[in-house]
Every structure is written in structure tokens, then in C-alpha cells.
Amino acid sequence: DIEQRILPSFYSSK
Amino acid sequence: MFEAKLIQGAILKKILDAIKDLVNEASWDCSSQGMSLQAMDTSHVSLVAVQMKADGFDKYRCDRSVTLGMNLSSLSKILKCAGNDDTITLKAPDDGDKITLVFEAKNESETSEYEVKLMNLDSEYLGIPDTPYSVNVKMPSHKFQRICRDLQQIGDAVTISCAKDSIRFAAKGDLGSGTVNLCQTASADKPEDSVSISMQEPIIQSFALKYLNHFAKATPLSPQVSLSLSPDVPLVVEYSITDDDGSDFGYIRYYLAPKIDE
């Protein structure tokens, strides 16, 4: 299955 | 007091066209350096970052940093009232609840003035590290737009792969499949038509075409687009913003989280 990731799982909040 | 005047108002119209369908509300952060914006779409899959440098404006005054939160579709509607050749001036008092836009037609005595309400937005900012990417591709922006549009006829996702001196865009769906292969071009006769590929390691990644087609709305801003990819990190799609003289005014960057095979 191909899953769409979201950006906050790659970059942290600042 | 914040005041920014842009003789080539069309640039601001194009920037709004490139972001308004991706993010509905966002804050412009205005400082002595210039105007910038960072916002994610509601699903948090993509992010747009815009920078307009202070020295790219024909007049720029920002006594203290201000955050101008606004509904971007409202701003876009107002900017549609400006002609392509109009000079656009943005004005905001330090503690006001609205921004004023003044449009001046060239060589005419007509001036129009509009106001847009400001909003207090709880913006979430992401810290994006400035890291090197495995693959950097520069290609004509209209070609990227065409590829994304064509492949969305075939499927929802595009698989981008890069090896040696070529980049491949592939999609498949119920009706069949499609691939577009671009090779690095040798000639630099027309730099805006060139394809250049810099690769540290081969890569293969999949992305939702819906978002790439949103990003391609920035095509009128720049003849070239830059794609940066690394394994298992978001794709960066960058359009540099230049004025009619070719001076660097800033950029619009989009980040898109990959689709990953579980």
C-alpha cells in the first residue's frame, strides 16, 4: 500500500 | 507603518494566483528584510513559502515588524481589480485591522484604493533545514506544468526517478500508464529551455499529482523551475521571482511530502 505522508512528520515546528 | 510599492504589480497578482488555491488563510511577515509567508495546506501534505526581498520593491518602508494575517482568496479578488500594468502599493498602519491596496494605472490619472480586513491567525511554522539534496533538476517551468497536467489524466500519483543524466516521470492508473523522460540538454543557447540535472545518488519517489498541479500555477512567475529530491524527504519545487530587468526579487517554494510504500 502506498501511504501519503504529512509534512510535520519530517519537519519540526518552530 | 508598513508601506511597499511595486511598479510591476503583476508580480504580486501572479504570486497570489500561485498560492490562493493551496492555502486559504496565511500571514505575511513583514520586516525590514522584506515580506515573507509560510503556510501549509489544510491536510498538512504541502507547504508554500514565499519571499519578496525589500530591495525588490520600488519603495519599501517597515518601521517595525508586522504580521498581516489575511484570507488569501479575498486578497486575490482585490488584486484582480488591478490591471497588469498597474503599480500596486500596500499600506498598513502599525496597529490597524486592515491593509490598504492602492492601484495606479500607468500614464493615467486613475487611482483606485481597496481595503482588506486583517485576521489574527494561529499560524504553525515549520523549521525547514537547509540541507543538500541527492538530486537537483532545473527544467522549463512550462514543461513541468505540462507533464503534471498530462500525467494527472493517467493517475493520482507520479513516480519521479532520476538516474545518470535523465529524469523520468511516470504514472499509472485504470486506463494504462504514461512516462515522460527528460534528458539533460547540452546547449545553453536558450537557458530558459535547458534541462540540467545534478545527481549525487539515484532516486525514486512518488508524489500526489494534485499538489504538483497546484504548484505549477506559479509557472507565469519564472521560465525555469527547480526540483530538489532526496530519499524519504519532501520534494522542493522552487520558482525564482525576477522582475522585468532580471533582478532577483525572491522566490516561491513548495514542499510536498512523499507517498511512501508501506
Commentary on this structure:
The complex is a heterodimer of chains A (14) and B (262). Chain A has 14 residues and is mostly beta strands. Chain A contains no helices and 2 strands. The termini of chain A are far apart. The mean pLDDT of chain A is 92. Chain B has 262 residues and is mainly beta. Chain B has helices spanning 10-19, 72-79, 141-152, 209-215, and strands at 2-6, 25-31, 34-40, 46-53, 59-62, 66-71, 87-92, 98-104, 111-117, 126-127, 135-140, 157-163, 166-173, 176-183, 196-199, 203-208, 224-229, 235-242, 248-256, 259-261. In chain B, the strands form 3 sheets. A 9-stranded antiparallel beta sheet of chain B has the order 6-2-3-4-19-18-17-11-15. The longest helix of chain B has 12 residues, at 141-152. Chain A binds chain B through residues 1-14, and chain B through 40, 43-47, 124-129, 157, 206, 208, 233-234, 255, 257-262.
SSE blueprint and pairings:
The complex is a heterodimer of chains A (14) and B (262).
Chain A: E1 2-4, E2 12-13
Chain B: E1 2-6, H1 10-19, E2 25-31, E3 34-40, E4 46-53, E5 59-62, E6 66-71, H2 72-79, E7 87-92, E8 98-104, E9 111-117, E10 126-127, E11 135-140, H3 141-152, E12 157-163, E13 166-173, E14 176-183, E15 196-199, E16 203-208, H4 209-215, E17 224-229, E18 235-242, E19 248-256, E20 259-261
Antiparallel strand pairs in B: 1-5, 1-7, 2-3, 2-6, 3-4, 4-19, 7-8, 8-9, 11-15, 11-17, 12-13, 12-16, 13-14, 17-18, 18-19
List keywords for this structure.
heterodimer, A: 14 residues, mainly beta, rod-shaped, B: 262 residues, 14% helix, 47% strand, globular
Short description:
The complex is a heterodimer of chains A (14) and B (262). Helices cover 0% and strands 36% of the residues of chain A.
Number of continuous helical runs of chain B:
4
What does the average pLDDT of chain A come to?
92
Strand content of chain A: 35-45%
Taken from the alpha-carbon principal axes, the silhouette of chain B is globular
Outline the biggest β-sheet of chain A: none
From the alpha carbons, calculate the radius of gyration of chain B and give it in angstroms.
20 Å
Largest interface: A-B, 14 and 24 residues
Please report the distance between the alpha carbons of the first and last residues of chain B: 52 Å
Helical content of chain B stands at: 10-25%
Let me know the average pLDDT of chain B: 95
Structure annotation, total helices of chain A? 0
Structural classification of chain A: mainly beta
The overall strand count of chain B is: 20
Q: From N to C, what is the helix and strand string of chain B? A: EHEEEEEHEEEEEHEEEEEHEEEE
Largest sheet of chain B: 9 strands, antiparallel
Uncertain parts of chain A? none
| Shape, per Cα inertia axes of chain A | rod-shaped
Oligomer: heterodimer
Order of helices and strands of chain A: EE
Low-confidence stretches of chain B: none
The value of Rg of chain A in angstroms is: 10 Å
